[in-house]
Amino acid sequence: MGEEKMKEPILELKEISVANGDQTVLHPISLTLQAGHRLAIAGETGSGKSTLLKAMAGLQNLSGGTVWWKGKRVAEPWEKLVPGHPSIAYLSQHFELRNNYRVEEVLSYAEKISPGQAAEIYRICQVDHLLKRKTDQLSGGERQRIAMARLLVGAPTVFLLDEPFSNLDTLHKHTMKEVMRDLGNSMQITWVLVSHDPADLLSWADELLLLKEGKSVQQGTPSELYFSPADVYCAGLLGPYSSLAGELIRPASLQVVDVAGTPLTGLVQSTEFIGFGYLLQVELKDGAVLKLFHTESLPPGKQVGIQRR
Question: Could you give the CA distance from residue 210 to residue 85 in angstroms, rounded to a whole number?
Fold first, then answer.
């Protein structure tokens, strides 16, 4: 009995769909999330990512299906005066903080936990040194962490984030990821993240869900989806790829070798520095172009051999 209770999903979507008039925005999707799980959702613009996130939060009316939190149905907006679920936090990419308020005032209005627990959240969110500042004296990254802390002091068990890194520079993005990691370890929060950047998804998520035109097109671990994409659309969402003998293949799966004795040869088209090495584009004799990593920069027109690692 105890083991069954532990395995009960914290959030479950059962064939949920969303329509806008005659147009289907989200086709039936089912999903199960356990406590502490990290799900990332990706897809092209207009694929239904934000709609799905709002549906999970109880902020979107459904045309079919149901959302369940710990075995209890999540009410839809038409059923409530104030839409949303008290244990499901939703951070929009267009979040707002009241101007000319001290940070501690903004946070205290939302507190549903003890002062000691709140202080720990402020520390983990790296905003404890900002409490006396006014909200109009903050950077974009600081505002975002305060918006997150404001939701966290409401004691959610599920946290939904819509493009949380889109307006952050590299330093603030790294800080935000640290905060999410530390919160996940200390509070066992279930995270759902929408992002368009493969680097945000692959290094962070336990599971990926890819959407296209409101439909789920592939779901699995980051490694499964990266190295075994369902099609060119799924491959392209997660980074550079090539097609070799009908197979979709990643740059890390290929390597440059001596031309002599190698059946697969081509001419370097371009070389792009990417920090840890170079991304080469090599055109084969049949006109196909392969992308692969290499430790050195190679000039355009140089003939190289290619083989699988």
Answer: 25
